[in-house]
Write a structure and sequence with these properties.
There is one protein chain. The protein has 424 residues and is an alpha/beta fold. The chain folds into two domains: 262 residues, 3-Layer(aba) Sandwich (UDP-N-acetylmuramoyl-L-alanine:D-glutamate ligase); 148 residues, Protein-Tyrosine Phosphatase, Chain A. Helix content is 37%, strand content 22%. The protein contains 15 helices and 15 strands. The strands form two sheets. The protein has a nine-stranded mixed β-sheet with strand order 2-3-1-4-5-6-7-8-9, with helices on both faces. Strand 5, helix 7 and strand 6 form a beta-alpha-beta unit. Helix 1 packs parallel to helix 4, helix 8 crosses helix 9 and helix 13 packs parallel to helix 14. The chain is globular.
Length: 424
């Protein structure tokens, strides 16, 4: 019965969303891929807002439920029946009353199960698609027959593009470039390879008065160059969403200078490499939103390279939804953690594989985030740099909260809504 009601709600939302899109004909920009979709959606929306009246997906609402909510311009009602009634009321109002509707929707799309993106594509046809990285072992792979099927579904919005429509893909990603060759779209690439349409180079931590406050890079595109600075988060992965946004600017003939100015106010979403002040003058790299093998690799590279650290502490939780690849991928991360951190803290049963591969390192093992939140703060010393990363269901933000120097910074963490707080 529960599944029936879920289907009924999704069907009804989709029906109204299709009708709204057909009435107002906004340009549709779809953000897809395995990692960095929310950050990319935010940067792309910031740049395109210089030319269009843009509405973007809120947070990471990228499902067949979340996308219609963006089309309607309403908040997620969660489990509130009255709020769901208001959602439908807003949808009907859009169809029967005059409205000043946005002329561009920037929609984040996600694939948790086979067919998810097929259902989303029934709601709207994209005018531009931005693809983020498609890794060897993607998240949610346990729900699919193979990693190839995940990548194929994540790339599928590109196949819906009209001829010569812009397709933005990461350079050097063999899966994205191979699939792009099967389309008739106008391909624009971004990344760090020499042939990228938007090329990042000379990447460094951004420091002010000897304190790391973000990332910086030179950027070159179509004969123009400039400096890209992202404040508040660290890691190469924090620059790539902005590079994708600059590629989107190319697609709509927005000058680089104007696009870079639009990105100056960009603030990375919570839980994506965010820099926070920790207890005892430590630094927290809060990467607690979610986890996957490629994301852990990048986070550990960032921790290893972070300057001025007395101790580098990797607090790593289970990586979920990997299915038959889970044991192999957890074990593969162990040597990387050993090479990147002075102290390895594992959280969860699967994460113990991180510490088993470590040699001559200090190891701390916790069964869950709650116990880590109790036991870890007393261990932190001045000058420590602490990476916190794990899958959503492990609730690693509870550890970040316990390590904060300023309790008021809790507003900068992921999953602070009442719905999440009520979960065990």
């Amino acid at each position: 019965m529960k599944n029936f009601f879920k289907f009924l709600i999704a069907f009804t939302l989709g029906l109204f969303a299709r009708a709204v899109v057909r009435r107002y004909h906004p340009r549709i920009v779809m953000i897809t891929g395995s990692v960095g979709k929310t950050s990319t959606k935010d940067t792309v929306a910031a740049v395109l807002a210089t030319r269009f009246n843009v509405r973007k997906s809120e947070k990471s609402f990228n499902s067949e439920f979340g996308v219609p909510l963006t089309v309607f311009g309403v908040e997620n009602p969660w489990n509130n029946p009255l709020a769901w009634f208001k959602v439908m009321k807003s949808a009907i109002a859009l169809l029967i009353l005059p409205n000043h509707y946005p002329n561009m929707l920037v929609l984040e799309t996600g694939a948790d199960r086979p067919g998810d993106l097929t259902r989303i594509l029934r709601l709207a046809t994209p005018d531009m698609v931005v693809v983020t990285r498609l890794p060897e072992i993607p998240v949610h792979v346990e729900a699919y027959a193979s990693p190839e099927q995940v990548r194929e579904e994540e790339f599928s919005p590109a196949y819906a593009l009209a001829a010569d429509a812009p397709l933005i893909i990461p350079s050097g990603d063999s899966y994205a470039t191979g699939n792009a060759a099967r389309t008739s779209a106008r391909v624009i690439t971004y990344g760090m390879t020499g042939d990228a349409s938007v090329r990042l180079s000379d990447v460094h931590f951004y420091e002010v008065d000897g304190k790391v406050i973000g990332m910086r890079s030179r950027v070159d595109a179509k004969g123009e160059h400039g400096e890209l600075i992202i404040k508040g988060s660290v890691g190469t992965t924090q620059l790539l969403p902005a590079a994708a946004a600059l590629a989107s600017a190319l697609a709509y003939d927005i000058p680089m200078k104007e696009a870079l100015e639009a990105l100056e106010a960009y603030e990375p979403p919570p839980g994506r490499g965010r820099l926070l002040a920790g207890k005892n003058n430590s630094i927290i790299i809060d990467d607690s939103y979610n986890s996957s093998p490629v994301a852990v690799e990048e986070a550990l590279k960032t921790l290893k390279a972070f300057p001025h650290a007395q101790r580098r502490i990797a607090v790593l939780g289970d990586m979920l939804e990997l299915g038959r690849y889970s044991v192999m991928e957890h074990e593969r991360m162990g040597p990387l953690a050993n090479d990147s951190a002075d102290v390895i803290v594992s959280v969860g049963i699967r994460a113990r594989a991180f510490s088993r591969a470590s040699k001559n390192k200090e190891i701390i093992i916790f069964d869950c985030a709650n116990s880590a939140a109790v036991g870890l703060p007393a261990f932190i010393r001045e000058g420590d740099v602490i990476l916190v990363k794990g899958s959503q269901s492990i609730r690693m933000e509870r550890i970040v909260e316990a390590l904060l120097a300023h309790p008021s910074d809790i507003t900068k963490l992921v999953r602070q809504e009442r719905k999440w707080k009520q979960k065990v």
